[in-house]
Write a structure and sequence with these properties.
Elements (H helix, E strand, L loop, with lengths): L6 E8 L5 E4 L2 E8 L6 E8 L14 E9 L5 E5 L3 E3 L3 E5 L2 E10 L1 H6 L6 E3 L5 H11 L5 E3 L10 E3 L5 H10 L7 E2 L5 E3 L12 E4 L11 E3 L8 E6 L8 E5 L9 H4 L4 E6 L5 H16 L4 E7 L9 E6 L4 E14 L4 E8 L4
Parallel strand pairs: 11-14, 15-21, 17-19
Antiparallel strand pairs: 1-2, 1-5, 3-4, 3-22, 4-9, 5-6, 5-7, 7-9, 8-9, 10-12, 13-14, 16-20, 17-18, 20-23, 21-22, 22-23
Length: 352
């Protein structure tokens, strides 16, 4: 069965409690960029129709696109594609129909716009994850999946009035070497401890065989300029013990190492808060890995597929470009249409 016939889409309109109000006729696209402050964005063209009936909800109305996969036996399986906050629409008349053109953000926008109204004081001994959950709840978010941690603040920490809760949450998560908070396909706030890419299992495969959905125009780039081979991170906080970590890539098999390049390219920066020395060491290595991944990146287009989210581990085999390795997907976008196209921005899994 061709890709043109295996997918359909539904668009649910939700209130601010995420109760389904109705379905609407729409088309659109969604994008996810794991390097962005707000990772999930979307754009929709919606026929006004039923929206008129729900004007009282518009100030915080949400839309949930759902992909419907249809197999050869006409069985259907649904895949939610996220919950998006609708911004102010631009309305236009087309063929006697009012169309809403709406840009949307995922629920990170709530955390960005909700700011500290007083200084936030966290005493030494506070649990990092507990404090993250408190901040989510204070922003009205009770749908979350945050991996537990025993890590405790080693010193008192204060956050200035006016800081966004998104910034504060991510600073606390980075301090225990977690991924930044992001929102999954069901609209849940998610974070967990960082896993080195080499330890990741493949979640999705794209292979240029007779079943391939890879489209023409795969691009691979190799950027070796100025990629550091020495990473230094240190805590510059007079209220806590001085901590410093250095990671040196001296692996002779690595083309960017100090050995292969014959010179040092050093990246130094401060860290506001970190749980302990072991966490700082792991965080410093994480920075080294993520910066080294830039030396091999791939952009490709495929037919639309399911289960893409935050930094999936993807195996790519492209015989023409002689690629056969694992990548981390840093960004993707998808046209929500029958026969739609998906784009992927990948960075290679590297061994330091």
């Amino acid at each position: 069965m061709s890709m043109d016939r295996v997918f359909d889409f539904r668009y649910d309109i939700l209130d601010n409690q995420e109760r389904v109000l109705d379905q609407v006729e729409a088309t659109g696209s969604i994008s996810f960029d794991s390097t962005g402050e707000i990772m999930g964005t979307a754009s929709f063209r919606i026929k006004e129709g039923k929206l008129k009936e729900y004007a009282k909800f518009y100030a915080d109305m949400r839309i949930r696109p759902v992909m419907i996969r249809i197999d050869n036996h006409k069985n259907k399986q649904e895949y939610p594609l996220g919950v998006y906050i609708m911004m102010s629409p631009v309305k236009s008349g087309e063929d006697n129909t009012v169309i809403w053109n709406v840009d949307c953000y995922d629920k990170s926008i709530i955390l960005k716009e909700d700011k500290l109204q007083d200084r936030l004081y966290l005493p030494s001994g506070s649990n990092y994850v507990t404090e993250v959950k408190k901040l989510l709840l204070s922003a009205g978010m009770d749908k979350y999946s945050i991996e537990n941690s025993e890590a405790l603040l080693s010193a008192d920490v204060e956050f200035e009035i006016g800081r966004s809760k998104l910034e504060v949450i991510n600073e606390l998560l980075y301090a225990i070497n977690y991924y930044p908070v992001h929102f999954n396909e069901n609209g849940f706030a998610v974070s967990s401890r960082y896993i080195e890419p080499m330890q990741r299992e493949t979640e999705i495969e794209y292979i240029t065989d007779h079943k391939s959905i890879i489209l023409e125009g795969v691009q691979q780039s190799n950027d070796l300029y100025n990629i550091p081979n020495i990473i230094i991170r240190y805590v510059d906080n007079p209220d806590s013990d001085p901590l410093r970590s250095i990671y040196i890539n001296d692996n002779p098999d690595s083309i960017i190492s100090t050995v292969r390049r014959g010179r040092n390219i050093v990246d130094v920066d401060t860290v506001d808060d970190i749980a302990d020395q072991d966490t700082l060491d792991a965080y410093t290595k994480r920075i080294a890995i993520e910066k080294s991944q830039a030396c091999d990146s791939v952009n490709l287009r495929t037919g639309i597929t399911v289960r893409h989210g935050f930094r999936n581990c993807i195996f790519v085999r492209d015989d023409e470009l002689d690629i056969a390795t694992k990548y981390i997907e840093y960004a993707w976008s998808m046209d929500l249409a029958v026969g739609g196209i998906m784009t992927h921005q990948l960075k290679r899994v590297v061994q330091l």
